[in-house]
Structure formats: structure tokens, C-alpha cells
Amino acid sequence: MGPVNLDKFLVTGAGGMVGQNVHFGLKFDHRELDVTNKDMVELVCNRIGPSGILNLAALDIRQCEADPLKAYHANVMGTYNLALQARNHDIPMVLVSSAAVFDGKQTEYFYEDRPPDPVNIYGQTKQLAELILTEMLPDSLIVRTGWLYGGHGAHHPKFVDVAIDKARRGEQIDASTDQDGSPTYVSDFLEELERQLTAGSGRVVHIINSGRATALDVAEMIVSQLSSQSTINPMKIVDMSDAGPARSRSEALTSHYVELRSWQEALSEYIRKLDA
Q1: Please, which pLDDT band fits residue 247 given cuts at 50, 70 and 90?
Q2: How many domains does the structure of the chain reveal?
Q3: Mean pLDDT of 127-137
């Protein structure tokens, strides 16, 4: 995968949080480009002649558990349809994947070379999408990230934004203590993603803010920075009303190739920007 022209990159899933914050390429949301429709993907690619493909189209963890077949079509076959056109047009492709491909039984960080072993349907579909891309386009770029925030979620509000809203109103914040991950500011994520694309990187790379945290850690920082009167209710995930599907004990990523600023510094900047 060599350096690419970002202006003509085809960006799918433009209606999601990451897609809304992408500032390059030709952006399509799911109404304009249904990645599960092989013929539509071919028609769009033939029409615009993209210089590359960035696939952000995917169902999230809750949607995958609710409809596994739909998840397979969107996350797996959608990737295949795009990869087929990338191969036919001889252009690079980028897949944004997830920390959910790991089993989370360990307490240390996950590096890029850790073997995947997902515990839920979302993670399984992401692993299959990675395998498809690796097989069809060996020089493709697979980017894993986790706990992204910094904009409107496509399907449900992000914990960071929920906690900020509650802290401003002085309401109680329920926060889990038994899972950690890599809180990552979407602006930092996309800035590094552009660097990887400009450099023509073709590999698996983790793009996350440095460090690890629980939801409790995140909530405590938000309440402190906002000088909020909110109380924080530490909880086990299983006891939360919106617990959702089973998830890994740890979703904390680190990287052999990338080192971004700490999650605390990034979150502090995000809060300041919201208050500006």
C-alpha cells in the first residue's frame, strides 16, 4: 500500500460518529451506499473511480447481538463487497476494526500481534472482516481502536458524552469498575489515521490514546474537571440496566507503531472544547 490521494478516497458509513468527523474523501452514508448490496458497491466504485476505500460501515455490538444475520451481512459481507472492488480497481483499502476481537482474559494490554479470540458476535464479525481483507488485499491497512468518543454516536450515546451531560446537571453517574479499555478522542484517532494513510502504511495497527481506564476512571475525571456535584455509583457491568452483550474483561490496546497522548490529556481537551 503506497501513498494515496485522500481527496478521492471512498468513505463508507459517513453517518456514524467517526464518519461525521472525517475531513477527507468522498463520503457516503448507508442510504447512499449500502455495502451489503454488491451491485450498488460496484456501480458507485465504477462511477467515482476512488483512489482507495475507507470502510466505516458496521453494526455496533448491541445491533449485532439483536440480529446476528444482519450483522454478518453488514460487517462481513459488506467488507467482502468493498474488498472485491478495491482489488478490481487496484486500490488500497482500510478497515476500522475493534478491540472486541480479543478475549480480554488477560490484564495487560493487547498489541497488534496478539491472536484474536472474540467473545461476542460483534467481535466475531470484525475478526472475519479482518481475515477477508488480509486474504484478498495483503497490503491493506487494518486499524483497531476502542472506546471512541467526541461526537454523536450513530446508534446510541457514548458514555463520555452521557457522563458529561449528567455531570453538568449534577445527576448521578453509573460507571462500571470491572472492565477497562482505551478511551480515545476521535480527533486524535483520525489525525493519526490520516498520517498512516499518507505514509502508505499497510499493516495491522492500533490507534488509541495512551493508557487504560475503567468507566469509573473516566467519570471521576469528568466530575473533577467540571467541578460537578454529581455522585458516581460504581457498579459491575452485569448489574447495569444497559449492560448489553457479554464483553471482554479488558479492551485495553497498545501499539508497536503508534504512541498518542494520554487519554487524560485528550479527554481534558475535549471537555474544554465543549465548554468554550
Answers
A1: confident
A2: 2
A3: 97
Cell numbers placing 69: 444475520
Domain around 221: 150-182+212-251+262-275
pTM of the model: 0.94
CA nearest neighbour of 99 among 75, 74, 116: 116
- Identify the CA nearest to 208 among candidates 144, 115, 112: 144
Are 166 and 188 within one domain?
A: no
- 4-60: per-residue pLDDT in tens? 789 999 999 999 999 999 999 999 999 999 999 999 999 999 999 999 999 999 998
3-state per-residue secondary structure call for the chain: CCCCCHHHEEECCCCCHHHHHCCCCEECCCCCCCCCCHHHHHHHHHHHCCCEEEECCCCCHHHHHHCHHHHHHHHHHHHHHHHHHHHHHCCCEEEEEEHHHCCCCCCCCECCCCCCCCCCHHHHHHHHHHHHHHHHCCCCEEEEECCEECCCCCCCCCHHHHHHHHHHHCCCEEEECCCEECCEEHHHHHHHHHHHHHHCCCCEEECCCECCEEHHHHHHHHHHHCCCCCCEEEECHHHCCCCCCCCCCEECECCCCCCCCEHHHHHHHHHHHHHC
Q: Write out pLDDT tens, residues 174-191.
A: 999 988 999 999 999 999
State pLDDT tens for residues 149-170.
Answer: 997 655 567 899 999 999 999 9
How many CB atoms within 10 Å of residue 88?
A: 11
Q: How many CA atoms lie within 13 A of 265 on its CB side?
A: 8
d(CA 8, CA 239) in angstroms, rounded, equals 47
CATH (domain of 192): 3.40.50.720
